[in-house]
Amino acid sequence: MIAKLTSSERQNALVLAVIVALAGAAMAILGRSDVLGVHGLIVMIFAGVVIYLIMASFYEPEPTEDREASYYDDPIKAGIVLAMVWAVFGMFMGVWVAAQLAWPDLAFDGAWSSFGRLRPTHTTGVIFGFGGNALIATSFHVVQRTSRARLAGQVSPWFVLLGFNLFCVLAVSGYLLGVTQSKEYAEAEWYADLWLVIVWVTYFILYIATIARRKEPHIYVANWYFMAFILVVAILHIVNNLALPVSWGHAKSYTIWPGVQDAMVQWWYGHNAVAFFLTAGFLGMLYYYLPVRAQRPIFSYRLSILSFWGITFFYMWAGSHHLHYTALPHWVQTLGMTFSVMLLVPSWASAGNALLTLNGAWHRVRDDATLRFMMAAAVFYGLSTFEGSFMAIRPVNALSHYTDWTVGHVHAGALGWVALITFGSLYTLVPVLWKRERMYSAALIEVHFWLAIAGTLIYVFAMWNSGIIQGLMWRTYTEEGALAYSFVDSLVAMYPYYIARAFGGLLFLIGAVVACYNIWMTVRAVPAAAPRATDIPATTVAVPGE
Amino acid sequence: MAEIERDPVTDRETTGHEWNGIKELDTPVPRGVLMFLIVTHIWAIAWWFLVPAWPLGTTYTRGLLGVDQRTTVEAQVAEGQQQRSAWTTKLETEPYDEILADESLMRTVRDTGRQLFGDNCAACHGRDGKGSKNYPDLTDDDWLWGGGPEMIEQTMRVGINTAHPESRIGQMPAFGRDDMLDRDQVRNVAAYVYSLSHSDYSTADNIDRIDAGREVFLTTCAACHGEDGAGNREVGAPNLTDGHWLYGGDLDTIIATVHGGRQGHMPTWEKRLSNADIRTLALYVHDLGTEQP
Fold this sequence. Notes:
The structure holds two protein chains of two kinds. By secondary structure, chain A is an all-alpha fold. Helix content of chain A is about 70%, strand content about 0%. Chain A has two domains: about 60 residues; about 450 residues, Cytochrome C Oxidase, Chain A. Chain A is built from 16 helices and two strands. The longest helix of chain A has about 40 residues. Chain A is globular and about 85 Å long. In chain B, helix 7 crosses helix 9. The longest helix of chain B is centred in the first third of the chain and has 25 residues. The termini of chain B are far apart. Classes of the chains: A mainly alpha, B mainly alpha. The interface between A and B is large, with 59 and 60 residues.
């Protein structure tokens, strides 16, 4: 990674790493025995490893070839590896917490291993660790190929990738040590949040600068989605995490948002994290890897426009549907509900656009598990966006809210849509990046596909049953007008479904491990492909044709 | 850069854009999508006219239906209370004897009590009320403070060892730790207490210790537990002769209990449950104890 940098770039990288190490030292000194101090040490160790890597190659000869004549793929490779490591970690944590719900003794009486601390390590691990690294890696790949231009920076892609992973490490280790903002999907504390702002703004600048130097006259749809993802996540992250630390030496902070406004800001963030992190970003993936793999043109450019602007506009309003029947004013709930229903059309337009793109390539869907991953992802995307709009309707929400139905819905999206599109994209991308003829084993992709589908279906059906039973038990009254069931009664009824859910999650985890092995063996054991002459940046700006 | 071409599969033209091999068709937005979009918009706009929807500075559009979630829920709560008042009034006003004799009212107590017990008491006493180690079994005939509905109600209201001014105080002193008894005395009295419920323990090997323990018991323990060890419900002192043990009845646990004392805790429910709920639970718990063999 260092050998391809010029000596001045190596110096810049070193200065950056030293600044981060000094920041870590400041945290360690100010924080002392507080978790902030522990995190200062982690930052110092992280920066120390980076400094070591830079110094180890610092005096190697500078690159001689023209770097602008090739794409910058090294950070993408590292991103894919990190994404798979986080996938296994995050999904293992998921299986563990799922098993704890059925067998609470699996917390082993530890504070760090209690459900409340492990659960955010699962969500952060899979959403940010797995999803985030996959998004950074694929966005770097897609923006270069569709712009026919190399990334606009040499050090900054590494800064974005490693900085983002440092954030994930701080977040996850903080939860285990008992630090949390108690905001779902935004649990990391103020110093980690500040760091992520720096990293994310760098990502934004890098991305837009790369698009600015594109050699194609038009910006491809995938890049619209990646841009929306990067820009909106920055806005969401900053606004939702505005907080005052109790002191510079303490990990604890208090949000600046009071009462129900805090709840509204949190769910404006939370729902748009689903929208722009877990939807827009992954639609960017879908719009590139699906047509490439299917070797088909996108079904409709016009439909792409309609769904892009529909999704970006309507999602912004939908967050309040997480707060139906709460202290939030009724009118805000109405807006959240109605915009959620209107959102269904552009969402389905995206899913439909993807599936109709496969017209003329259905024989490939049948034969090629990689493409089938992406097809199934589009189907689950359509299913879970319908379910989401449905659950946003107040009377439906009265039944579904606070039950496992919500958990099932989220996993239909997270497993069925986000993870399947990611695996399909990675199976397409890995042989290209490492310049291999193909993936190591098509049979293992097939195995992974069926493990993932079976795991998702078992999970989602278990949670639908569990959630609806739960919701009905909570609202059943006796003839005398008293509640018919206690909460514990509903827990007893959940027990078999919790076991089924943990089993479904386990299948999904095994699939991810199979994917790791397949990717590893592809890099190690598959013969190199003949060089692809087309996979290089363009030297001149293309002129719009007739 | 590609020219506009015709896709043989769909017979649509491309837009003429190309990115690294990806092309797009210029297919118009399907009519069904536009219709669906119009339908959802009409529905949303209609809904905005009917219910509270848009902010207007310091107020908001109220909607033609005049509904508001707060008034709706208040009406529902009032309706629910009205429905329940048929039996809650009786429960709150009638003496326990009459309620116990009223079979239909007791059915209601068993129905609603089960849910109340599950949500409030089961965490310690178990869903079936059978308790567990350190938490008393409420289904047997062995009561620390009395098993009549009045007694149970009082225990629920004030709790045991709570901050409530009338709290029941059940303190087993730490005789060993606080140097009221020496090591041998603790062991001897524990042996004596153990022998009360284990007649086979009084063998020739143990008889000296048991006798010595009896001396200690009469001077130190009998004030609360009674000379015969049968306990005293006035002070919540358990019967030591019946083989029912809250903290465990093996010799080691009895030694630990005499050495370190016991101060069990039962919360006060007076401010957390309604009067009707407390009385329902008192009857329900009483009923648990009497109904079962």
